[in-house]
Design a protein that fits this description.
The structure is a single chain. The chain has 361 residues and is of the alpha/beta class. It has 2 domains: 208 residues, Isopropylmalate Dehydrogenase (3-Layer(aba) Sandwich), CATH 3.40.718.10; 128 residues, Isopropylmalate Dehydrogenase (3-Layer(aba) Sandwich). It is 42% helix and 19% strand. The protein is built from 12 helices and 12 strands. A 10-stranded mixed β-sheet has the order 2-1-3-12-11-4-5-10-8-9, sandwiched between helices. A two-stranded antiparallel ribbon has the order 6-7. Strand 11 and strand 12 form a beta hairpin. Helix 2 crosses helix 4, helix 8 packs parallel to helix 9 and helix 11 packs across helix 12. The radius of gyration is 20 Å and the shape is globular. 49% of the residues are buried. Bound molecules: 3-isopropylmalic acid and magnesium ion (MG). 3-isopropylmalic acid binds next to helix 4.
């Protein structure tokens, strides 16, 4: 069986980091019989440049015909002045919506080798292993009405934060299911002391928990407190489930516990489709310099192997190869401390491939 992967490198460092992930997939094809083939298409600024649309029709077709999508990153200063629907970020939001990717999994796991790379004390972050389950296709990102208009002689900007109970239930379900495979504890994060939408969120989560998941530990936290607790004592969390905007913010915060946002992969899953991408952005300031950290993208391939391609065995191998490369002291510039030497993006990719080949024996 051939596995078809849609590869969307995107903008900035996207193409560089995706190239390294593809090297890893090539090793998996050559040495582990993965049987994957892939085809590239444009998204974000690259999509706009090629066809005037940040989510081109050809990309949509390719994504729909694939077993999984691997995405690099989108965005850059050259597209910031475009109308909002033409900006790179709109392409990302469109593909998420079009593929129905409502559940976004963002794991923040501290790699022991990188304990000192975090700005937090090693004793605070040692052992941190958090999974943020973020709702991805609704909430204030997509709510109507929205806009900027003139009211009473001045400009007024507004968005709408809303959730249907069915949307809350399906994301909460994913969080409970994920928790059962981990430490069995879900913390639901909202702002129920102020927002009606959050009050509904909390009630629906409680109802679902009582009906179907009472074996899982459940707690609730207001988002401001959660932001504080993540820094104060991150080990208290296992699975965090939250809405689109709060998840965007908390997952960036959780990522820095691990030392570098350049380490963190993500999976976005819906009914039929799934997309894998590093959680960091396109980093235009270092684009084209072969300096970026490709590990988040390589680890996204591991998530893809596990969730979409039914190859948990190979996912383990890739994760092990990354650990071995880190054990060997290989560091991109974002991970190197003080006087530690750093390697390029492609050298990091090569190091992981070498470790993978060594595992193949
Ligand atoms: C993310 C990003 C996106 C988001 C942007 C680029 C639209 O920050 O994936 O977290 O806000 O969802
Ligand atoms: Mg974000």
């Amino acid at each position: 069986m051939t596995l078809k992967i849609a590869v969307l490198p995107g903008d900035g460092i996207g193409p560089e980091i995706v190239d390294e992930a593809l090297k890893v997939m090539q090793v998996l094809n050559n040495h582990f019989d993965l049987g994957a083939e892939w085809e590239e298409a444009g998204i974000g600024g690259a999509g706009y440049e090629a066809s005037g649309d940040p989510y081109p029709e050809a990309t949509r077709k390719l994504a729909h015909a694939s077993d999984a999508v691997l995405l690099g990153a989108v965005g850059g200063p050259q597209w910031e002045q475009l109308d909002k629907p033409l900006r790179p970020e709109a392409g990302l939001l469109k593909i998420r919506e079009d593929l129905g990717l409502f559940a976004n999994y963002r794991p923040s796991k501290v790699h022991r080798q990188l304990l000192d790379a975090s700005t937090l004390k090693p004793e605070v972050i040692d052992g941190v292993d958090i999974l943020v389950v973020r709702e991805l296709v609704s909430g204030i990102y997509f709510g109507q009405p929205r806009g900027i208009e003139v009211r009473d002689g001045e400009r007024y900007g507004f968005n709408t934060m809303g959730y249907r109970e069915s949307e809350i239930r399906r994301i909460a379900r994913k969080a409970f299911e994920a928790a059962r495979l981990r430490d069995n504890w879900v913390c639901s994060v909202e702002k129920a002391n102020v927002l009606d939408v959050s009050e509904l969120w909390r009630n629906v989560v409680i109802e679902l928990h009582q009906k179907e998941y009472s074996d899982v530990e459940l707690s609730h936290m207001y988002v401001d407190n959660a932001a504080m607790q993540l820094i104060r004592n991150p080990r208290q969390f296992d699975v965090i489930v939250t809405g689109n905007l709060f998840g965007d913010i908390l997952s960036d915060e959780a990522s820095m516990l691990t030392g570098s946002i350049g380490m963190l992969p993500s999976a976005s899953i819906g009914g039929k489709f799934a997309m894998y991408e590093p959680i960091h952005g396109s980093a235009p300031d270092i684009a084209g310099q072969n300096k970026a950290n490709p590990l988040a993208t390589i680890l996204s391939v591991a998530m893809m192997l596990r969730f979409s391609l039914d190859r948990a065995d190979l996912a383990d191998m890739v994760e092990k190869a990354v650990e071995h490369a880190l054990d060997a002291g290989v560091r991109t510039v974002d991970l190197a401390l003080g006087s530690e030497a750093s390697v390029s993006c492609s050298a990091m990719g090569d190091a992981v491939c070498q470790q993978l080949q060594a595992l193949a024996g």
